[in-house]
Amino acid sequence: MAPVRSALERRAPFADVAVVGLPRALMYYRLGAKWRAFFEALGREVRVSAPSDRAVFERGQALSVDECCLASKLYLGHVDALADEADAVFVPSFAIPGPLRSYCTKFQALPDLVTSAFSLAERPVRVLSALLSEGGAERDERGSYAALAQSMGASRRDGERAWRAACAAQRERDASLARAQAELVAGARRLPAAERPLLILLSAHPYVAHDPFVAGPVVDALRANGATVLFADEFDHARGLRRSRDFSPSLPWIVNRELVGAILELHERVDGVVLVSAFPCGPDSMTDDAIALCVKGRPLLTLTVDAQSGTAGVETRVESFVDILSYQRKGGYLHE
Ligand code: SF4
């Protein structure tokens, strides 16, 4: 006979969770500041898994089906790393808050994916799930966090306070990244042409661009070849989203829209653009070719990273690309 759950357990099934695990993967790279502030404001301790490496990937791969993309395989590896570290691992699902504001379907299925992957695992994981309405109307987004706070046994007032703290932390993080990036561009532009480093815009989902196991070797190779790297995902999101209307009136994925908008805003101020995707990515496979048509007059390098490819190929391609940019700057062969 199934155990009888008390009224509190039904209303607040996660009230007993003292340590919340945050997998350092997928949207953690975009919303980690908000989630950390939210749980801390509710009085919880937060543990974040260590940055990705091959061991994390191999563990994630063993838990995944082959069709999963590299980024979601890594996610499972990070969840596994938290199994003994936290009372529950936060695995949100993302609602679709509007027609041009949807997320990759992987984000909607994430709690089910994790629950099923760990159902037979040696170390079971308790999943703290929530349906978040990120990027939608403020009322909906706030409501989704209020429900999450309630599931952890917080009063309405404490939930509201945690939501405000979370939004402030995320706003501050986003603004400081956008500011630092704008200063980097302005500083480079102030230098005499002969001393100016090559400015390269790297466009990728945040969990690809900033994960040391995914785009890390690309970023390292660009820097080793003397380039200054700007990240499209650190550009002002709202501005990128507005500008993306010039690219497509119907592209559904909000993160791809922000990236495209950032490329349109920045590509004339950089020497080249690098697109990086995690294999196999449905949204990127639909947008990358179209982006190539928009980036007129700037060399573009497209890289797809999968865990089997070593870094030697990446280094060679990046080196050749930087050579092309240097040649271009001296009046080379690519013209609008
Ligand atoms: S957008 Fe692409 S890389 Fe990201 S989770 Fe979806 S398929 Fe994977």
UniProtKB/TrEMBL annotation:
PANTHER family: BIFUNCTIONAL PROTEIN [INCLUDES 2-HYDROXYACYL-COA DEHYDRATASE (N-TER) AND ITS ACTIVATOR DOMAIN (C_TERM), BIFUNCTIONAL PROTEIN [INCLUDES 2-HYDROXYACYL-COA DEHYDRATASE (N-TER) AND ITS ACTIVATOR DOMAIN (C_TERM)-RELATED
InterPro entries in the record: CoA_activase_DUF2229, Dehydratase_Activator_Redct
Pfam families named in the record: DUF2229
Residue ranges of domain DUF2229 in the record: 20-233
Superkingdom classification of source: Bacteria
Protein name in the entry: Acyl-CoA dehydratase activase-related protein
